[in-house]
Specification:
Length: 497
């Protein structure tokens, strides 16, 4: 085997795939079929098919969004993900943990603009005890009973198992959860999740999903939950009745087949949850391209798409899919594909739309597909509604993590509704469970977008950090408020149409 040779045995002829049955929901796409569609179907056809599935599942009249706020309660983190520009060591300059007062101020601001949920995440802080989290959740819920707490992420839970002192269980210390006996690990994890649920945690976002296959994950998610740990956390959440979301960060060192195998794991675990009649499940999937600025992985050279050499990540993924290399044998990876993991292939608009369309066709047991306008910008985000997405996600009152790694777009509610309406749908505000709270038809006088007379003042903004640092204060929208805030705190806003 050399780096230039690959079997491409995965590729099937397009006419062997019964796409009409997939669109009708009577046949499930195999991973190999999804891979073949990704490479051979036209962008137009992928969008057409994915849109037909979205319309079958969600109808053709409304498309949704939610009013929430990302709150990162700390940026202290023991993991060292190579794509992260947000984390800080415990005592490093710029490290922070929000006080109760700061947290409550942020929630109050959200509720004041009619928001309904917070997305609450760290860092994986090595020292905060479980009582800190229980108090934080109880304080929030007693002060703001209506707020939905969509909180933490599987890697945080894995670290909680490592560092929390829970009577009757060992405490191995930071990044050592894997050293516990597997049964004890699961038992301690379940106790922790139940305690936090009892304290007010409502649902769990899919942070840290990235890419599951180990030959990719081991290179990019240093010190973070492996695929099995990640999926186990969500499985326990589902057994406790919590809804969760599934994510994928792509467009870096992975091969296309790795993306499909990543989605395949979600599909398999969701099947299992349904077969077991668990009271919770994955309700949504969202994929976004890697943002490179200020990140270690972003320093890798770019793959030249004009090169006659195949992308190393694709070659390695093919070898592994064809069972020619063990996915956990790093030496074999290096010997077979020396450049794998040493070059990035960033995803542009077409790769993003192709990947999202494949997700809608492949993930037949996940209800909602979200558009990632936050990373792709408002117009590609809007177009994503024709490529399988049914949901525009959050108005993003605050975002700290992706914006530390490059450009993040910010939109207000008016603009978000405008994008949905001008794509041909009726905007509808939803809650975390996808229940509709408000439908803004053309004759609804409360429709946020219909009150706007001058769209030139309502353009999207982008957020990024001027000096490559991140202090964690990235309150982003609306643009006019931001630019007048005088906050010198690392943020600059550029107008981006
Ligand atoms: S991505 Fe999250 S888990 Fe990874 S280093 Fe950054 S803050 Fe920590």
């Amino acid at each position: 085997m050399t780096q230039q040779t690959t079997t491409r045995a995965l590729m099937l002829p397009l006419d062997s795939i019964d796409i009409d049955a997939v669109v009708a929901g009577t046949k499930r796409l195999t991973p190999q079929e999804a891979y073949s569609l990704y490479h051979q179907a036209s962008l137009y056809d992928l969008g057409r098919w994915a849109n037909a599935v979205a319309e079958r599942v969600h109808g053709s009249s409304t498309r949704t969004y939610v009013k929430d706020r990302n709150i990162n309660y700390t940026n202290v983190c023991t993991a060292r993900c190579t794509f992260c520009a947000f984390r800080r060591d415990l005592k490093a300059d710029g490290s922070y943990t929000l006080s109760t007062e700061q947290l409550h101020t942020k929630i109050k601001q959200l509720l004041d603009v009619g928001g309904t949920q917070i997305l609450l995440q760290g860092g994986m802080h090595p020292e905060l005890p479980i009582e800190f989290y229980e108090d934080m959740l109880r304080d929030m819920k007693s002060t703001f009973p209506s707020v939905h707490v969509h909180g933490f992420s599987p890697p945080e839970f894995v670290e909680f198992v490592a560092i929390f002192n829970i009577p009757g269980f060992p405490t191995p210390g930071p990044l050592k959860a894997h050293t516990l006996d597997p049964d004890i690990y699961i038992e301690k994890l379940t106790v922790i999740m139940k305690r936090l649920q009892d304290a007010g945690l409502d649902s769990i976002p899919g942070g840290g999903g990235e890419i599951f296959p180990p030959h990719v994950r081991n290179r990019i998610g240093i010190g973070k939950a492996d695929a099995n740990q990640w999926l186990q956390v969500m499985n326990i959440a589902h057994s406790l009745g919590m809804k969760t979301s599934a994510t994928m960060m792509f467009g870096h060192i992975e091969g296309v087949y790795d993306r499909i195998m990543h989605m395949n794991l979600y599909r398999q675990w969701q099947d299992k949850a349904h077969q077991q009649n668990l009271p919770g499940e994955y309700v949504s999937f969202i994929a976004w391209p890697f943002q490179r600025e200020n990140t270690p992985m972003g320093n890798l050279p770019d793959y030249d798409p004009a090169s006659t050499d195949q992308f190393p990540g694709d070659i390695l993924a093919d070898f592994i899919a064809n069972q020619e290399i063990d996915p956990n044998d790093k030496k074999a990876h290096v010997a077979a594909v020396p450049d794998a993991g040493k070059v990035v292939r960033l995803a542009g608009a077409t790769e993003y739309l192709r990947t999202q369309a494949i997700a809608r066709l492949f993930l037949d047991n996940i209800h909602s597909i979200g558009s990632s306008w936050v990373t792709m910008g408002p117009h590609i985000g809007q177009l994503a509604l024709k490529y399988g997405a049914n949901d525009m996600g959050s108005i993003m009152m605050e975002e700290n993590v992706v914006s530390a790694a490059g450009t993040t777009y910010a939109l207000n509610e008016q603009y978000l509704c405008h994008l949905i309406r001008t794509a041909g749908y009726t905007p509808a505000e939803r809650d975390n469970s996808y229940n509709i709270l408000n439908i803004y038809t053309n004759d609804n006088i409360d429709a946020p977008d219909l009150a706007v007379e001058d769209w030139s003042t309502q353009r999207a903004t982008t957020i990024h950090y001027e000096d490559g640092s991140s202090s964690g204060t990235c309150d982003s929208i609306p643009a006019d408020q931001q630019s007048q805030s005088g906050d010198p705190n690392t943020i600059s806003l550029d107008i981006a149409d």
